[in-house]
Structures are given as C-alpha cells and as structure tokens.
Amino acid sequence: VRMSEDTTFEKALKNLEEAVARLEKGQMPLDEALDCFEAGVQSANLCRRKLQMVESRIEILTKGPDGELLTEAFSGRDDQD
User: Nearest 5°: phi and psi at 5?
Assistant: First the structure.
C-alpha cells in the first residue's frame, strides 16, 4: 500500500500496526516480509512527519503578567523529571 502526504495519521498508524502484526507472525516468504517491512517504515515515517506538522501548529495559551492571554509556540518537550 503506497501512501501519500494526503494519507491521514490514523490510516498510516493502522497500516504500521498491520505491518508489525504480519511481521510478528513470521510466516511469509522473505520477499513479502521485506515488502511488508518497507511499507511499515514508510508508514512510520509518515506518522512522524504528521506529528511534527501538528506539533509546529500547537500553541499554548498562557496568562501574561497583566492577566491578558498570550500564546507561545509549543516546544514539544517535557522539562519535568
């Protein structure tokens, strides 16, 4: 299954999960397993790109010193230990 950037995150994730499940069974010829692995890698990469696009669009609303609402870019990092 070839995917494009128009493929939804949910579809790409489902394809990845299906590829992993098929590979875990281990009962397919080597060529088919390689094709399945390649499709899984493509799905994983698409999921990663989709998540990066979403992350870049997320904004967190915070209150400024005067109580006004400010926005700041979402860093995507959890600085808490």
Answer: -65, -15
Helix (H, G, I), strand (E, B) or coil at 65: coil
| Model confidence band, residue 67 (pLDDT cutoffs 50, 70, 90) | confident
Q: How far apart (Å, rounded) are the C-alpha atoms in residues 76 and 13?
A: 20
CB-based contacts of 1, cutoff 8 Å, min separation 6: 15, 39
The DSSP bridge partners found for residue 69 are 63
**Distance (Å, rounded) from C-alpha 21 to C-alpha 40?**
10
Nearest CA among 55, 59, 58, 79 for reference residue 71: 59
